[in-house]
Amino acid sequence: MSQKIRVLIVDDQPLIRTGIQTLLLRKGDIDVVGQAASGLEALERVATLDPDVVLMDILMPTMDGVEATRQLTQRGARAAVIILTTVRDDEHILDGLAAGARGYLLKDVDHKVLAEAIRVVASGGALLQPEITAQILPHLRSLAAAPGTVSSGRRDIAERLALLTEREAAILNLLAQGKTNQRSAIGW
After folding, report:
1. pTM above 0.85, yes or no
2. How far lies 41's CA from each of 69, 97, 105, 127, in Å?
3. For labelling alongside 36, which of 28, 84, 147, 151 has CA 20 to 30 A away?
């Protein structure tokens, strides 16, 4: 068997962390190497544990998940971040993706989908939960339909999208064209 995917779980609720860990430990190819209760603690744990994937909640004390993701990206961390949260508003989704997250899932996701998302991002792909994809598609279509003519009401979204890496922008462009998550992740 090939090497297991090393995962760090970041959530301020101990019961959530333990539940996710219990489910993931049932997967033969995934190893939970640690937990963190805040974004600040996540930065420390990533530095010492070197996980392949970080499951990152958004709303946490000390440092939220979006800022922790941004700092991990700026520091050049090897770990891929999947936002795993109950927060589904456009601003947080776009901020999380702009910060460098390679996945965005809601906590009501099935454990099999979560495990597959971990595998996808660990192998270099990206994955958004279908409901999230459907939610942000109108923003992407409006930007793709009229490049350079973004209205002032959408300027903040355009500015956040400009923070995306070339790879993240390409994946979002594929999603805006109606490609599925799996089809968008293939070939990277």
Report:
1. no
2. 12, 21, 21, 25
3. 28
